[in-house]
Design a protein that fits this description.
Distance between the termini of chain A: 60 Å
Oligomer: homodimer
Number of helices of chain A: 7
CATH architecture of chain A: 3-Layer(aba) Sandwich
Shape of chain A: globular
Largest sheet of chain A: 9 strands, mixed
Largest interface: A-B, 81 and 81 residues
Number of domains of chain A: 1
CATH class of chain A: Alpha Beta
Strand order of the largest sheet of chain A: 3-4-2-1-5-6-7-13-8
CATH superfamily of chain A: Survival protein SurE-like phosphatase/nucleotidase
Order of helices and strands of chain A: EHEEEHEHEHEEEEEEHEHH
């Protein structure tokens, strides 16, 4: 049983190579990753077109399989079709850019780990808080530590770990904090432009704005120089609202509405 | 303030027309929807390419805006750029195919409503449990009822409603049930084929398998002929595991690991 490595920045991303080197110190690795960048694809899967798989040799670094689909597709394909037996662990990253707060829901990196967890394999997403190549080695070092820990302790069914690492040299990291998903807003807007043929088009712009500063939030931990580890699940029921919703008497109203 | 209608089956889908007719009985409507089918796109947003918007006249049915992006893009564009003021309500559907259990995470229909909720607008996703055109009128009737209810009562910040309607004539509906997201597995596999140029490709296959039968689960309610209404949130922290994870002593281990 090997470790499956994937990402959403594509098989040629630098962060993936760092993760491969770190995981090779633990066990045999299999790399199955998108053939191009797939950021912000959320938990997309490809149903309406076929998927292609190409064997890639990263010049002595590693062999891997590049897929034409999304990160979730890559994990499904790896586990259901490419690997002879399921992996011991799915690890996704090292993503260029943090996946904290509201941005979790858009994250291909996290969705790959979610897919692993849905297929009953312990899974981890690892992101570095930088938009340009940065201190990948810090993130790789922690990835190895947390991967070993997950292999030793296991994870409960339906729970994965979302890890975010500050873009700092190792000796400047404040420590490791277990966190909750913070609340954030996006102050996004669309910039309107006109193409050379006179047609309008729109670019999405804007940044994430953390809207509260609770001590245990991933956003804040990261900003303060801590490695953030959030346990994540994908049961989306808002349990706290079930009671109030029952009081809406929808069944009675529906039957009375003729 | 109007009602914003979107979907993931695209602006030409029959389910959208039924939803428009139902919402017109409540208020003014604005339709902003993908220009083609976008099923299983999850909560994808488009960052790496510009978005196009085309004004569409559905032959006396409605005017609307077709977007080149995903359902989440459509909602963002509508609220941030197309509409002069935010809508009173975002309603997404009527999707062809149920969005219950594990499939919620892949659903473009639900992600559109999630995006509405993230932008602080009360939001509803509506799906019909049929893969071919079916009893849309039943779903449209309930969509009107639940939309009126949401406009009257409001929804808490960060909570949306996921509605699934059995594919039955109205008089065969058993009633309305407030439900939780059920647990399901996918027995998916990949069918390997060879294209006319001798290259291999893969089709994703398989179906959803409900793996438990709790009375209050969306999967079961729907199968028994009830309209299912699930309150959904998008805070993904697995709170129940925070304590155990803290006992892993990650901070100590990290500092000791040199």
């Amino acid at each position: 049983m090997a470790i499956l490595i994937t990402n959403d920045d594509g098989i040629y991303a630098t962060g993936l190579s760092f993760l491969v080197e770190a995981m090779k110190r633990i066990d045999e690795v299999v790399v199955v990753a998108p053939d191009r960048e797939q950021s912000a694809v959320g938990h997309a899967i490809t149903l309406s077109s076929p998927l292609r798989v190409t064997r890639i040799d990263r010049n002595g670094g590693f062999f891997g399989f590049a897929t034409s689909g999304t990160p979730a597709d890559a994990v499904k394909l790896a586990i259901r079709s490419i690997m002879p037996e399921p992996p011991r662990l799915v690890i996704s990253g090292i993503n260029l850019g943090a996946n904290v707060g509201g941005s979790l829901i858009y994250s291909g990196t996290v969705s790959a780990a979610t897919e692993g967890s849905m297929l009953s394999v312990p899974s981890i997403a690892v992101s570095l808080d930088s938009r340009i190549d940065g201190h990948f080695q810090t993130a790789a070092d922690f990835a190895r530590l947390i991967a070993e820990k997950v292999l030793e302790k296991g994870l409960p069914e339906g729970i994965l770990l979302n890890v975010n690492v500050p873009n700092l040299p190792r000796d400047q990291i404040q420590g490791v904090m277990v966190t909750t998903q913070g609340k954030t807003n996006f102050n996004d807007f669309f910039e309107e432009r006109t193409d050379p043929r006179g047609q309008r088009y729109y670019w999405m712009c804007g940044t994430m704005v953390a809207d509260d500063g609770r001590r245990d939030h991933d956003v804040r931990a990261l900003a303060e120089g801590y490695i953030s580890v959030t346990p994540v699940h994908y049961n989306l029921t808002a349990k706290g609202f079930l009671g109030s919703l029952s009081e809406w008497r929808l069944d009675e109203n529906w039957k009375a509405d003729v």
